[in-house]
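Progress note, sequence design subtask.
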């Protein structure tokens, strides 16, 4: 019974971290769109900012997961980065109606999300 409760609380915590991550992502993307509208940023700057948002948010999720778990922090950070990326890809597939429209940066974004999540977990 204790293990089930512990597993249940871990899953709840992971879902809360992911929810916070996506709410933060939404807020930062809205801020970026406001800056794009206001200042007319170039496409290159917007792409860099989006990658920065992915890194910041997954770092924070990994940091929170590592802080809570206490041991194997880097694995918890890696898990958070991987889950964030998985949800990102699933939503992208649903919106684009197929795999052909997914960016050629698939592997790069995967490594950025997992790596920054793991780094956040290690630093916590």
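Output:
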């Amino acid at each position: 019974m204790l293990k089930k409760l512990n597993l249940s609380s871990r899953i709840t915590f992971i879902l809360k971290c992911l929810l916070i991550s996506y709410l933060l992502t939404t807020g930062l993307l809205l801020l970026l769109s406001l800056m794009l509208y206001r200042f007319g940023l170039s496409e290159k700057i917007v792409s860099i900012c989006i990658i920065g948002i992915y890194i910041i948010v997954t770092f924070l999720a990994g940091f929170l997961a590592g802080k809570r778990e206490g041991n194997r922090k880097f694995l918890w950070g890696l898990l958070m980065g991987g889950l964030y990326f998985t949800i990102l890809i699933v939503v992208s597939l649903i919106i684009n109606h197929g795999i052909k429209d997914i960016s050629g940066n698939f592997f790069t974004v995967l490594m950025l999300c997992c790596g920054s999540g793991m780094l956040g977990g290690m630093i916590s």
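The longest helix spans residues 2-39. Work on this subtask will continue into the next period as scheduled.
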